[in-house]
Amino acid sequence: MTLRQKLSTRKYQQKIIIITFLLVPMLLLIIFTYLPFVDMVKFSFFKWNGTSPTMKFIGLKNYKDIFTKPEYLEMFKTSLYYLIGSFIQIAIALYFATVLNYKLRAKNFFKGVIFFPYLINGVAIGFAFMYFFREFGTLDTLLTSLGIAKSNLPLWLGNPKVVNYSLASVSVWRYLGQNMVMFSGAIASVSPDLYEAASIDGANRWQQFKYIIFPNIKIIISLNLILAVKGAISVFEIPKIMTDGANGSSTFVLKTLDTAFTVHKVGLASAMGVILLLIIMIITFVQKRFFEGKEA
Amino acid sequence: MKKKNLAVLMCTVIVATSLIGCKGAKRTTNQSPDEIGGEITVITHRTDIIDTKMADYKKAFEKKYPGTTVKFEAVTDYETDIAIRLQTEEYGDVLMLPSSIKNTDFPNYFESLGTVDELKKKYDERFLYSKFYDGKVYGLASNCNVQGMVYNKKVFKEAGITKMPTTPEEFLNCLKQVKQKTKAIPYYTNFAAGWPLVQWQDQCWGSVSGDKDYHNNTIVHEKDPFSEGKPNYVVHKLLYDIVKQGLCENDPVTSDWEQSKVMLNNGEIAVMDLGSWAISQIKAAGSHPDDVGYMPFPWNINGKQYATAGADYCYAINTHSENKATARAWIDYMIDETGFALSEGSISILKSDPLPDTLKDFTKAELVVDAPATTENDGLFDVLNNESEIALTSDIEKKRIVEAALGSSGESFDNIMKDWNARWAQAQKDNDVEVK
C-alpha cells in the first residue's frame, strides 16, 4: 500500500483526526500543568526566593525542615474539622437524595435549591459568610430576634474554639448540593422494578434504602469519601477569604502560600506542595484498594 | 512635451509632499532623545485619581510642552503586575519603581536620574537614598510619609485628655479614659485587613530608636533585638497591651478598613496607627474633617519625640524608553510644579515646600529617615527578615501577637519575643553575619 492509499483508509483517517483534535488540549495540559509541576519538584530541592537569578541546591533539606519543625505539619489538624464536616455533609446529601428520589411535589425545585450554592463562586461565598458571621451580623441578628441574648453568643469567627466549626459549616453548605446531585444521579439509575418488587414484599422505606439503594450506589459513596478527604486536606478559599488563617484557622495550603509569597521561600513552599500531592496520592490509592477489596 | 513636464513636476511635488508628511509623522514617533515632545506612557498605581487629578496634570503638561501627549495606565494590583512586566521591555516610559526590585538591579531596568550631589540642591537629601545604587539615584519620591497615629480630637477632648501621651503607659491610660468616658472604640486594629498591623512596624525604626541607621545597619548585627526595652519590643508590646486590656474593637477578625475610616471621622474610633498618607483619606471619609488629628508615636528619648519618615513610591524612567527627555520632563513637572505631594497631605521632597497642613500638629517630632545600608549590609535586612520567617514587614507575626493578646493561642508575649530572638540569631548564624 502506498502512503497515499494508507492515509485514505478509514482507520488512518480516524487516527489523524484523533491526534489533531487531541493535540491542542494535550499541549495546553503539558504547558500549564505538567511543565510547572516538573519545575515545582525541581524547586523543592533548592533554596530560592522566587526572583533571584541564583538558586542554591540544598538537596532534601526543605523536606527535612517540614518534617522536623512542628509548625508545618500541625496545620493538618485544622483539616480534621473539614473532614468531619464532610462526613456530615455526605450523610445529609444522601438523605436528601433519597427523599427527593421518591414521588414528591416540586422535587426538582428542592433539588435546585440545594444545588444552587455550588454554582456560586467560592470567593463570593466567603464574603457573604464573612458578613453573616461577623459581630452583629446576620446570624447574630437572627438569633437575638429568636430571644437568645447577645451576651450568650460567641464571636463566630473571633473565638478560636468556634471559628473552625463556623468555617467547616460554610464548606458543608457549599458542597452539599454537589454531593446530592451525584447521589441522586446514581439512585436514578437503580431499576424501578426493584422498588416495586420490594414494596410488594412489604419492605418499608428504610429497608428499601438499606437493601436496594445503598448497595447500588456504594461506588459513588466511596468516590465522594475520597473527594471529601482530598477536599479537607486542601481547603483554601473559605479560610483565606473569611479569616486569612487567623485564630488557628490556618490550613496547610495557606501556610504554603505564606511561605512562598510572604517570606519568599519558594523552594520550601514547593516542597510543601509536593508533600501535599504525595499525601493525596497515597490516600486515593489506599481508599481505592480498600473499596476494590470489598467488592470482590 | 510640455504636458509631460508638467506631469513630472506634479509627480515630484506629490512625492515630495508625501515625503514631508512621512518625515513629520516620523518625528512624533521616533523622538530624538534630547527633545521634549511626542507621546509618553505613564504607569501609576493611583487608580483612584487617574480621571480627576492626574487628568488635570496631563492637560497642563501638554499645554506647557506643545506636541506632547501623555497616556496613563493605572494598575490595580501594582506590585505584582509590574514585576511581571519588568521582564519585558514594555513597562511604559515613566513608572513607579516597584519595591520588590533590589537596588543592584536598578541599572538593568531604570535610567539614572542623577547623583545625590546634583539632586540635593533642589531636593531634601534624606529622601534621595530610598532608590539609590552605586552613587546614582534611580527614583524620585512622588511623596513622602511620616509614621504616627491618627486620632479623633473631639473624642480625646470628651475623655478629658489634655496632654498628648509621650510614653506607652500614658497612651494606654488615654485609651482607658476614652473607654470609660466616651462611647468610642479606643483603638481599632483593623486586624482583618492585615496590612494596617504592618503600620506598627515602621514605628520600630525612627520613631522609637531615633536612629537613622537602626533599620538597615544596626538591627542586622544586633544580638537579641527583640528583648525588653528594644524598639521592636516596645512597639509590639504596646500593640499587645492594647488588645490584652480590651482597648480595641470587640471582634478584630471581622473588622473592616473602609468602615474604620468613616468611624474615626465620626468619633466612633479614637485612635489608629497609620502613616500620614491616611490623614487626607480619613478627613474625606466623613463630615468632621477638623476632628481628625495626628500625633507622634507615644515614645520619647530624653523628652524628645521622633517619627519615622520615608519615601512613598518613586517615579522612575524605563531604561528602554525611546522618549526619555519627555519622561524626565514629566517627573520634574509632577514634583516641582504640581504640588501633588502637598495636595495629598504628604511631605514633598522639594526643599522649598513646607510641611503639609495635615502635619501642623506634628512639628514637635523630629523626622528620622532610614539611612541606606552600607555596602557590607546591602540587602541583609531583607535576607534575615525572610529567612527567620519573622517577616516583620508582613502581618503574619503581628497577627500572632494579637491572637496571643486575645488569649486564643495561649502564648505569652515574652515567649513570642524569645522565639523571635532565637530565629533572628539562627538566621544571622546561617548567613555568617557578625553579631556585635
Automatic annotation (TrEMBL), chain A:
Predominant location category: membrane
Membrane-spanning ranges: 16-37, 80-100, 112-133, 211-233, 266-286
Gene Ontology CC annotation, any one: plasma membrane
Keywords assigned by UniProt, alphabetized: Cell membrane, Membrane, Transmembrane, Transmembrane helix, Transport
Alphabetized PROSITE patterns for the sequence: ABC_TM1
Family stated for the protein in its record: Belongs to the binding-protein-dependent transport system permease family.
Protein name: Sugar ABC transporter permease
From TrEMBL, chain B:
Keywords tagged on the record: Cell membrane, Lipoprotein, Membrane, Palmitate, Signal
Keyword Metal-binding: no
Record keyword Cell membrane present: yes
Cross-referenced SUPFAM superfamilies: Periplasmic binding protein-like II
This protein's name: Extracellular solute-binding protein
Record organism: Anaerosacchariphilus polymeriproducens
Lineage summary: Bacteria, Bacillati, Bacillota, Clostridia, Lachnospirales
